[in-house]
Design brief:
It is a single chain. By secondary structure, the chain is an alpha/beta fold. The chain has 6 domains: 206 residues, Alpha-Beta Plaits (2-Layer Sandwich); 117 residues, no CATH class; 36 residues, no CATH class; 329 residues, Rossmann fold, CATH 3.40.50; 75 residues, Arc Repressor Mutant, subunit A; 106 residues, no CATH class. The chain contains 39 helices and 30 strands. The chain has a 5-stranded parallel sheet. The protein has a 4-stranded antiparallel sheet with strand order 4-3-5-9, covered by helices on one side. Helix 13 packs across helix 15 and helix 26 packs across helix 27. The termini are far apart.
Length: 1140
């Protein structure tokens, strides 16, 4: 049953379930009498002269009806906890002990039993006002005599309301409502804890101490001995004390004034009657209240305060507090006043030395629970909302008032400091994670380079412990400086005039010994020196012929033009040229590009204007050379005019030096004209003496030769590619606009030019790698632009990581260095624990941190999840967790890629996955791609042949003085493979070691030997027939395998050359049918034949080894229509053979 009653306020419901639970918890049973009382609120004007009401109920329903009547009048409902009657004499057995602290915050009251070391309450009731009532219920009733002593001791021990010591004491009844004056409900009384626990008298008696009689006899006479007496303020009710402190607002000033006047007059009269001295005159206190009202009481009518005071005096009021409570207030004041002066001075001061306001009676319990965690959470929530300074100050004031006299300003200030530091820590963690992820983020160059070239570079990198990105970018930089002058790419249409020459500058960032020299030697000097020899021979031969022709012309009548001198020698690369010397060389060989290879780029930057006393413009001329604008000079000794240039720089850079150039180079665009890749600091050991070497000189020489021989032209991108180009460039430009001025902002602005240059170089690398390609098409497909964009994105992450890692002595760089040092120790077989001294020794002398600061860094790194700690104080040690850079899901869950191969007349459309064809492929498939996640693309696959070079590689013949693989025949392996020396194939669950393994291993898949005859299966192995597929008409197959190529929207495509058409007959007897590369190349050439195409395709497939046939038939990459066409040709050939 729920009782409803009406008043001026909305209907209020009495919760019968709460009433029943409250009574049941105290042991009330059906038929027991419940003794009720009801009172007006203490500050309600109707309370004056009202003694309250009494009632008895025999059932819960009757109780609810009585309570509804009381509450309809605005009265609170109470009941005798122990039962038995309304008087102390009527109570013959007691059910529970209890306390309340209405001068404490409710949150403190709720948990106070913990700090007082009391057992958990059986019951806790939130009164709906300012109190929490806590009960400890007995397992069996006790006598009133036992109860009085135990209850008194509990109140004394807990410093609770001492008025709760009579056996017939009433407490608020759960389910009813707490009222403010004028029938205004302030909250419902509810059960907030019902643990069900019961306690014996002996158990509670053992816990609650019996206080020593220290102040007995001191009162009431001791108060008279005090000179001034107890402040009258302390003997008033809490509500009236609040009115004295802050006054009242308009609309309630008179009502509140009357209530206060009654309390002042009644309390003062009782104190006078009892003989207690008190300080401050009651009327003075009342006048002070009138002044604090808003507006002040009496401002409209000066005699209004006198009327209120006179009215209250005539009603002969009583004190608002009970007599017992007033005595307890006096006792508390006496105890405080009798404390020795030095102790009282300490007690009266806050943490900051300010005198505590003695007029406030809200005292924090000495052992009260302060919810620091909740306060911290609430304050952080306020800070998260972007609170103003005044809002934070208000929050602190309210907290201090609630927990007075404890001052919590310092605690809240510390919370805010930690909060601000945590904001910085989040940014620091993002920077650190970016560096660590970038260190483990490696491009899979199989996505960007032709198959055989990518395979060679990958295995070379594994053998030499070099990252793929550095190798690929070095290769592209060398290729970009091998073009003839005039090669360029137009982005958009000719009206845009957005042309880019091929040159790409690249810097290898790493400390000494990180492998820069190996890259310079193997990717630059060895292959280009081989071409230099050819160039020297060419120049010598042409010079001899020129001398002969010139001598003959001199002896002739000179009617014919004078013979042209030979073209100057193309040096291809320089290693020590100044800017002046470089311009002189360009002027003498204006048709050639040039690559500048320098061990340290810092020497190049520092060498600007070194012969001009710092007054020259070398820096600006360097920028012009990158743009390919050419130059002209008019000097006393020489006049030079060069219309166009194509100059690239490839060099190394120390990380510690790079920071200075970042700051200097970002402003004028010097450093943004460079790309960067990081060479990690790893342990590099010499390979085993029996390990097979990987020589990439031959394949690179072929690529560079083809690039040097390629006729210059203007290249264009397709309309689809231009649309994608604009899309990614827009993203970069918006990112740049959001960044503050700095190096990264300038890099983003330059990305569009770099994207065009990379697209051009990737296009030529792929086209010149195709043995059937003549003149490279002038149209760059969209796939090359997408590949270039992925490379640019990776390079940007490298730039950001490098900049963060070396950006001065910052917290980020210090933590990263600490993590790297621990990882290095772990790679040496040590545990990797570091103390502050060891970390400090590896810091620079200028930025070396103190040991205390380093230990703080250790703690910060541990809290960020980058390591663990052991020990404490000066013995604190840090160890980085393994694979700390793989915390990003993007890196940790990247899929492993297979090597795509080509089976199509159009190398950009149809691919086949032959990832199991050789041991080399098993090695490559096991390499985990920890870089950019692959996006769906139609990759050009095995186009890694360079003219005659590819044929020599397939036959294991020497290219010049070098061969790709040394002495493969000894291992009984297919010469079509590119092996990592004697490295074993890796399991898919293993990571590649930084040091190449040295135990020779053969792939689990049996590799066929070199033979022009098909390889038959062993006697004990069943012969596997090719998978039978439905046939397809020749017309449909032709449509599928010869799709229309992409064309540019700007210019028509060039007419195909003879080499492009590939209209020649195949020599079937010279095909190596045991090698998938050879079979694939032959099929690709056969598809382009005219007459006899079907027969040639069928014969190639019929002669291929059975495992090669299976790979083609079971491939999930080759379109089914293409497979059907091949199989149809195969069956046609078999039928002809059977008829013969």
């Amino acid at each position: 049953m729920v009782a409803e009653f009406a008043s001026t306020q909305p209907p209020i419901e009495i919760n019968q379930d709460e009433i029943a639970q409250h009574l049941a918890a105290l042991g009330y049973k059906a038929g027991d009498t419940i003794y009720l009382r009801s009172f007006y609120p203490s500050n309600d004007s109707r309370k004056i002269g009202d003694k309250g009401r009494k009632a008895e109920a025999k059932s819960v329903n009757q109780l609810v009806q009585l309570a509804a009547q009381f509450q309809a009048e605005g009265r609170g409902v109470y009941f005798v906890v122990n039962g038995g009657g309304h008087t102390n004499e009527s109570v013959n057995a007691c059910r529970a002990i209890f306390y309340e602290h209405d001068n404490l915050d409710k949150q403190i009251q709720k948990h106070l039993w913990r700090s007082l070391c009391l057992p958990e309450p059986s019951l806790q009731i939130d009164t709906g006002g300012k109190s929490i009532h806590s009960y400890w219920i007995f397992d069996s009733k006790i006598s009133p005599q036992q109860w009085k002593q135990l209850q008194t001791d509990l109140l004394e021990y807990t410093d609770a309301d001492r008025a709760l010591k009579n056996p017939s004491r009433v407490m608020r009844l759960a389910g009813c409502w707490h009222f403010a004056p004028n029938n205004v409900p302030s909250g419902q009384t509810k059960i907030i804890l019902n643990s069900g626990k019961r306690y014996s008298y002996d158990e509670l008696r053992a816990i609650i101490p019996t206080p020593a009689p220290t102040l007995k006899g001191l009162l009431p006479t001791s108060i008279r001995d005090l000179q001034q007496g107890c402040p009258l303020y302390l003997c008033l009710s809490k509500e009236n004390r609040r009115l004295i402190d802050s006054g009242a607002g308009s609309g309630e000033r008179n009502t509140k004034a009357y209530s206060l006047a009654c309390d002042l007059i009644g309390t003062a009269a009782w104190l006078d009657a009892q003989g207690y001295r008190y300080s401050l005159n009651p009327r003075d206190i009342f006048d002070d209240y009138c002044c604090k009202c808003s507006p002040p009481l009496g401002s409209d009518d000066a005699i209004e305060p006198d009327k209120v005071w006179k009215s209250a005096t005539g009603d002969n009021p009583k004190p608002a507090l009970s007599e017992d409570y007033i005595i307890e207030c006096i006792k508390a004041w006496v105890r405080k006043e009798t404390i020795p002066s030095h102790e009282r001075a300490i007690a009266d001061k806050s943490d900051h030395g300010a005198i505590v306001d003695k007029t406030n009676n809200v005292v924090l319990h000495p052992t009260a629970f302060i919810p620091y965690d909740e306060l911290k959470t609430e304050y952080i929530k306020l800070l998260n909302s972007g609170a103003s300074k005044s809002q934070k100050s208000r929050f602190k004031t309210e907290v201090n008032k609630k927990y007075y006299p404890v001052k919590l300003d310092r605690f809240l200030d510390d919370v805010e400091t930690e909060y601000r530091a945590s904001e910085d820590d989040e940014l620091i963690k993002e920077d650190i994670q970016s560096v660590l992820d970038s260190a483990n983020l490696e491009l899979d160059i199989r996505q960007f380079l032709p198959q055989k070239l990518a395979t060679a570079l990958m295995l070379f990198g594994i053998n030499q412990s070099l990252p793929q990105t550095s190798l690929m970018m070095s290769l592209i930089s060398v290729t970009s400086a091998s073009h003839q002058i005039g090669a360029q790419v137009l982005i958009g249409n000719k009206h845009n005039e957005f042309y880019q020459n091929p040159a790409i500058n690249h810097a290898l960032v790493g400390d000494s010994g990180s492998g820069k020299s190996i890259i310079f030697r193997s990717l630059v000097k060895k292959p280009l020196n081989a071409l230099r020899k050819e160039e020297n021979k060419r120049f010598a031969s042409e010079s001899q012929q020129y001398e002969k022709d010139l001598a003959a012309w001199e002896q002739s009548d000179k009617s014919t033009p004078q013979p042209e001198p030979p073209k100057p020698i193309n040096r291809m690369y320089l290693t020590g040229a100044t800017l002046e010397g470089l311009k002189d060389y360009i002027a003498k060989a204006p048709d050639n590009s040039i690559l500048n290879v320098v061990d340290e780029l810092s020497g190049l930057f520092g060498g600007f204007n070194q012969y001009k006393r710092g007054q020259g413009n070398d820096r600006q001329e360097f920028l012009s050379l990158y743009d390919g604008d050419g130059f002209s000079e008019a000097k006393v000794s020489k006049n030079i005019f060069v219309e166009r240039t194509n100059t690239s720089w490839l060099g190394g850079l120390q990380p510690t030096i790079l920071h200075k150039h970042f700051e200097l180079g970002a402003s004028d665009g010097l450093l943004p004209r460079f790309t960067f890749s990081v060479l990690p600091e790893i342990i590099r050991l010499l390979p085993d003496e029996n390990a097979q070497s990987i020589d990439i000189t031959g394949i690179l020489t072929g690529l560079y030769r083809a690039t040097l021989s390629c006729q210059p032209q203007t290249y264009h991108i397709t309309g689809e590619a231009y649309k994608y180009f604009r899309q990614v460039d827009t993203k970069w430009q918006y990112e740049a606009a959001r960044l503050p001025n700095g190096a990264l902002k300038e890099f983003l602005k330059k990305c569009k030019g770099l994207l065009g240059r990379l697209s051009l170089n990737l296009h030529l690398i792929h086209e010149l790698s195709d043995p059937f390609c003549g003149t490279p098409p002038s149209v760059i497909p969209v796939i090359r632009v997408k590949q270039a964009a992925d490379i640019v994105e990776h390079l940007l992450s490298q730039i950001q990581a490098v900049h963060l890692q070396i950006a001065g002595e910052t917290t980020q760089s210090a933590i990263i260095a600490m993590i790297n040092l621990s990882h290095k120790r772990q790679s040496l077989g040590e545990e990797g624990w570091l103390n502050a001294r060891e970390i400090g020794r590896h810091q620079s002398a200028k930025g070396r941190m103190k040991s205390l600061e380093i230990r703080e860094l250790m703690t910060k790194a541990k809290e960020m999840g980058y390591g663990e700690l052991r020990g404490s104080g000066t013995k604190l040690e840090f160890r980085a967790t393994k694979n700390v850079g793989e915390m990003s899901a993007k890196v940790a869950h990247t899929e492993k890629l297979n090597i795509p191969m080509v089976l199509s007349p159009d190398s950009q459309k149809v691919s086949a996955n032959v990832g199991e064809m050789s041991a080399a492929n098993e090695i490559l498939e096991s390499i985990e791609n920890t870089g950019v996640e692959p996006s769906p693309r139609n990759f050009v696959g095995d186009v890694g042949d360079f003219g005659t070079i590819s044929e020599n590689i397939l036959r294991d013949e020497s290219v010049g003085e070098n061969s790709l693989i040394g002495d493969l025949a000894q291992g009984g392996l297919d010469v079509g493979e590119i092996l990592q020396g004697d490295s074993p194939p890796l399991n898919t669950d293993e990571n590649i070691s930084l040091i190449a393994p040295t135990s020779p291993t053969i792939s689990q898949l049996e590799t066929p030997t070199i033979d022009t005859e098909p390889v038959l299966p062993a006697d004990n192995e069943p012969t596997r027939e090719p998978t039978q597929l439905p046939t397809l008409s020749s017309t449909e197959a032709q449509t599928l395998v010869e799709p229309e190529p992409e064309t540019a929207d700007i210019l028509p495509t060039l007419a195909p050359t003879v080499a492009d058409s590939c209209q020649q007959k195949l020599e079937l007897d010279n095909i190596n049918y045991s090698d998938y590369y050879c079979v694939e190349t032959a099929l690709k050439q056969a598809f382009r034949l005219g007459d006899g195409k079907e027969a040639t395709v069928g014969k190639i497939y019929a002669n291929a080894c059975s495992n090669i046939q299976v790979l083609i038939a079971d491939s999930t990459v080759i379109p089914d229509e293409t497979k059907q066409y091949i199989l149809r040709c195969y069956h046609s050939v078999l039928n002809e053979m059977n008829q013969d």
